[in-house]
Fold this sequence. Notes:
The complex is a heterodimer.
Chain A (H helix, E strand, L loop, with lengths): L2 H5 L1 H6 L7 H8 L1 H18 L13 H13 L3 H6 L1 H27 L22 H13 L4
Chain B lengths: L6 H10 L3 H23 L2 H18 L9 H19 L13 H8 L11 H15 L4 H12 L4 H8 L3 H25 L7
Helix pairs in contact in B: 1-2, 2-3, 2-4, 3-4, 7-9
Amino acid sequence: MxxxxxxxxEDLLAGSLEADSVAELHLAACEECRQxxxxxRSNALLIRSxxxxxxxxxxxxxxxxxxxxxxxxxxxxxxxxLLDPAFAWRLAVGSLAALLLIGSFIFMREAQPPEPAVTVIxxxxxxPDLGSDPLRDRDTVLVTxxxxxx
Amino acid sequence: MDHRTSDEAELVRRVQAxxxxxxxxxxxxxxxxxxxxxxxxxxxxxxxEDIAQQVFAKVYFSIPNFDFRSxxxxxxxxxxxxxxxDYLRKRKVRKLVYESDxxxxxxxxxxxxxxxxxxxPPIDDVVARRDLALKLLAKLPPExxxxxxxxxxxxxSVEELAEMxxxxxxxxxxxxxxxxxxxxxxxxxxxxxxxxxVTP
Lengths: 150, 200
């Protein structure tokens, strides 16, 4: 559709353009634009079939019925919320995501190689000379233990 | 237009502050409008009553989030049309053209075996055209659908739409053009897949 028609399409469909307007003159000469405008016009008429000219009022007491509905919705229990498909779906997705997070955390933890056990090795700078005299050996061991520092 | 300064905005602020009398005023001011929009789409009084109640309940619970970007009526209009389409989706878009499904005034004509009123197209055609219009509009995104309905069904001009929605006129025109193009494509697709369908 050419720009000149496109810009005035709403006016053309509303029939509010003068016959000698630029858009109307273009339509008279351009078959392609004329066909498209015609197709748009018949669709507009189709939508207008939903028009209902009279304004109808609901039956008396409408406000009270609206308030009843509001009250019913207000007092709906948590169980109703759980039964609501949209909420249940969100809950299920949320739970699944939480499970995946926890599962992957546990898996990652277990997959790590175990850290070597820390062993304290007491290294003596000058190992005592043991084995010659049991009584002296006992004293040496006691002294070693008493003076042991990490 | 600034939608924060109208008397409608004052009413909204009172509802937002918890004033139930203000809410009652909104219901009484717009109940006929809402009811007529729904009846225009569904042509059934029971459905219109039920959905109109639902619309105002939604207005009540959502009005704390109303941001004054559009007029209150435009906002209510959008809720109304969305509720109608939710309802139609749940009903899987009603089948044509059973007598029980006819609009009530047409239904009466059928029962009395009256001919169609002067100049009016046959009942089957009217119902089928409305059904086709609803089906095609269902293919559009809600914003474009609302704009087309406000333009063609409610008869608002582009200038009025700009004022009501807070969107500038050129953008409204672009959105309407896109909506019309999508509608046309949907109609052509429908005709290809179901050649017997009523043509626009």
